[in-house]
Amino acid sequence: MFLLAVCITTLLAATLLSAVLTWLVRGLARQNRWLKGPGSDRHVHTEPVPRIGGIAVYLTFVAMIFFEMAIATLGLKLHRPESTRQLLGILMPATLMFLAGLADDFFGLRAIFKLGLQVLAGFWLFKLGCSIGVASVRVHGTDYTIWLSCAATVIWVVMLSNAFNLIDGLDGLAAGSSVFPLLVFSAVAVFHHNGQMGVASLILTGALLGFLRFNFNPATIFLGDCGSLFIGFMLSALSLAGSQAKAPTLLSVALPVVACGFPIVETVVSVMRRFLSGRPIFSADGEHFHHRLLKLGLTHRQVVVLLFGVSGVFSLMSVVFLFPKLDVVVVVAVALSLLVFVGVGKLGYAEFEEIGRLVVRASEQKSVIAQNVKIRHIAAALKDAATWEDVTRALRGGFHGGDFSGFGLEVYGQAAFSGSKDELVYARNVTLNPDPSDIQWSLTLEFAGADFSGYLELLCPYKVRSLRVDVNVLLQILKPALCRACRTIGRGTPTLVEKQRFTAKSSA
User: Fold this and answer.
1) Which pTM was predicted?
2) CATH 3.30.450 at 365-506, yes or no
């Protein structure tokens, strides 16, 4: 009960102090015109707003940490000395991240420079003993465990630091979404008898709640990079500071990953869609989850509340890993996977719709191969075609039972009388699958040679599924075969116009 009272008091004190400091920082920013308007159409606000709210969050956290340590020295044994030293150590790279974000807010930093500072902060955190444990890895007698642990820790820090920077696009979204995983990390720390880290997580929670009073829609102050980078780093550090994160097991890593699932999924999806669309993965755009939800017609507050709920679901599900049972873990993993799959699908990203199309295409690969083989059979039959009717029979036999409901073939040759290459040599329309109710669309394959030209029009029902035949096979196999057949049959063959003229002269 005593610990509970201390936690509640700390949370309320941090919330109150943060609210006061946020109000002061906002007033100072307005007085000195430290305001920024919307920099692009990605930004949803229209008026200049202070973007240094992270100063209030940082000052609240540091002040409350030192206050809590001072109280602890009076006899409140809430933590161990090693935890205190570790937390003081964490404040150093956290301050580095805060200052890097503050410099970016005022002067702008290159992305590669910010990334370098994030890597440095991650390595610093590893040296402090806050690391992701990995199983022992030895190759040819050399132990790579420590290097893999260091790399995993740095990646974790970089990913979370950028993740919360990415979701900081709507009023209150980044700050509010951070509250849920922080509450989980606090519970995990207390569960593992690490009261110091538990209270630290609650202090940061209170700092964010106090800031949200001014940051929720309509926001009068934003976190800025100084706030989002600091919050992202502290979340990565607090998640690793407990004994749970140090255990070299999959489940110990899974808890913080799932707790921070919402910003992590946002980051992974952003990187994937930018890569798939051929854009730089670090480029900014207006296609984040909150942007897509706004385009779907939700209001600003509805989007924020909905994403708060998503973050809360991830954090709540992560608690399962405190008491890992295989069947429960499997159910939670499947449920979260479905949540991500269905949720991202509903947002209508063209990149992932294209991946879905390719998956469906792969499942139809047997039919695709069969249709392509038929085209190759047509090409083989055209080699032996001696008349235009042989060409028609070859096309009819190959296309029968495939994607197309009919075809039309027209060939033009050079007329002996006029010397022009526009006289009709052969024309034929063939219906393969008569269905007058179908709306038809066509695919035209044009071909030409030295003394002939023509086209093959392939008809397809409008309601048919995607073409199983590969268009490249039509272009690279069927088109050259038609050209060769036209060249062979067309030599010495009179055009239809010439035939008509010859008949008219004979009658005269």
Assistant:
1) 0.78
2) yes
